[in-house]
Amino acid sequence: MLAAHVAGDPYAFEELFYRHHRQLHRVARLTSRSAEDAEDALQDAMASAHRGAGSFRQDAAVSSWLHRIVVNACLDRLRRNKAHLTIALDDVYPVADRTAQVETAIAVHRALLRLPVEQRAAVVAVDMHGYSVADTAAMLGVAEGTVKSRCARARARLAAILGYLETDTAPNRPAG
Amino acid sequence: MDGVGPGGSDGAGADQPLTVEALADLQAGLLDDDTAARMRKQVRADPDARQTMEALNRVRHDIAKLGTDAASAPDVAPEVVDGIAATLRAQRLDRSRRGAAHTLRPGRLPRSTRVAVAGAGLAAAAVAAWLGTAALITAPAPTPSRPTTAEHITVSRPPMTIPLSDQQILALLDDKPDFGPLTDPQRRTSCLAGLGYPANARVLGARPVQIVGRPAVLLVLPADTPGSITALAVAPTCSSVDTGLLADRHVDRP
């Protein structure tokens, strides 16, 4: 589809966007401070991808390339707007009923949205998209130790929210 | 904070409590080597701590899985999808109109005007489709093109090409890269991401250039095939959001 776009098919990129838009929007939301920021970042990212498709390396997956551009656009925004106060969301996101197979994914998604955006962005970049700590730090404009610390706090909090620390005999209480 | 276990039996005085946070620090690589080694030893001797580590690993696994799970991605509001699609359509029409695919940098659309742009894009697409259809219906039989076609009249700007020969581009591989305005690694990383390269991609050569009077930075990167390289001329403001790609060229190594 991307090759068709580069070759001049005027509708190919739009089709590519439609095909991936739900996942791209989700990752934008997870790495943005607000739904509005996510929409703006997604639009910027798609416009950028549309213009830069000619330089796309064919040995990379199109989906990964699009996701990376979205993540980068969102992290750029976070870096530029560091001064904003961080507000952890109590909730959440309207999610329609789905099959049992995706319940875990939905629970993880909702749990991520309860984290402060800086922690959320760090684990999404590192754990979801495989960025190195160094690359994530560079994109966010923070020290590598800060990224590690945010990831650690995020994972501990997620483990608690998701109930992974509970045992039958003696549940582990997460830190507040 | 609670500990998840009493710790190992050796050197109890030096051991730190195996809290969830401490174990998350261990997992994230935040601890110095000695502390991490001591804590790993504690964890091996503590079933509760091992269980907590498994929980933290499960979190990482689940986050990774979420990234590839298309089925669970929530639906997106239609107006959001339509707005972005309209922006892409408007960008495409604009590019077609100007006939220089890589020379344009449409500005960002403020949120307040997105709906208007979406409408304008749709209207433009509809008009273009109507005009195209009308032209096809009423078009006369094909005739040989002549030098006075609209194509010749409207092409007035010089082509955007890299102002270096293949040999000059290859020679950049032997020189220290001069990134010019992209010397800042953070900006360069962002630019490479916008071009579809990983942040740790090795830039083989670089130098500032001018293309039709516009400043640019030429980046030489590995091509998709061994034995060849790709030269990309990008705007000095290149970023992941907008690379400002002006021209590109594929060069085979001798």
State the gist of this model.
The complex is a heterodimer of chains A (176) and B (254). Chain A is an all-alpha fold.
Keywords:
heterodimer; A: about 180 residues; mainly alpha; Rna Polymerase Sigma Factor, Chain: A; Arc Repressor Mutant, subunit A; 2 domains; 8 helices; B: about 250 residues; alpha+beta; Nuclear Transport Factor 2, Chain: A; 3 domains; 4-stranded antiparallel sheet; about 45% helix; about 10% strand; flat; disordered N terminus
Look at the structure and give the CATH class of the largest domain in chain A.
Mainly Alpha
The largest pleated sheet of chain A is described as: none
CATH topology of the largest domain in chain B, which one? Nuclear Transport Factor 2, Chain: A
Helix content of chain A: 55-70%
Q: Which quaternary structure do these chains form?
A: heterodimer
- Low-confidence parts of chain A lasting 5 or more residues at pLDDT below 50? 85-98, 169-176
Q: Would you tell me which CATH topology of the largest domain in chain A applies?
A: Arc Repressor Mutant, subunit A
Strand content of chain A: under 5%
Describe this structure in words.
The complex is a heterodimer of chains A (176) and B (254). Chain A is an all-alpha fold and 176 residues long. Chain A folds into 2 domains: 1-84, Rna Polymerase Sigma Factor, Chain: A, CATH 1.10.1740.10; 87-176, Winged helix-like DNA-binding domain superfamily/Winged helix DNA-binding domain (Arc Repressor Mutant, subunit A). In chain A, 62% of the residues lie in helices and 0% in strands. Chain A is built from 8 helices and no strands. Chain A has helices spanning 2-6, 12-30, 35-52, 62-80, 103-112, 117-128, 133-140, 144-161. In chain A, helix 3 crosses helix 4 (62-80) and helix 7 (133-140) packs across helix 8. Chain A is globular and about 55 Å long. Residues 85-98 and 169-176 of chain A have low confidence and may be disordered. With 254 residues, chain B is of the alpha+beta class. Chain B has 3 domains: 1-73, no CATH class; 74-104; 166-252, Nuclear Transport Factor 2, Chain: A. Chain B has helices spanning 20-28, 33-44, 47-68, 78-98, 111-138, 150-154, 166-171, 185-194, and strands at 205-211, 214-222, 228-234, 247-252. Classes of the chains: A mainly alpha (176), B alpha+beta (254). Chains A and B meet through helix 2, helix 3, helix 4, helix 5 and helix 6 of A and helix 1, helix 3, helix 4 and helix 8 of B.
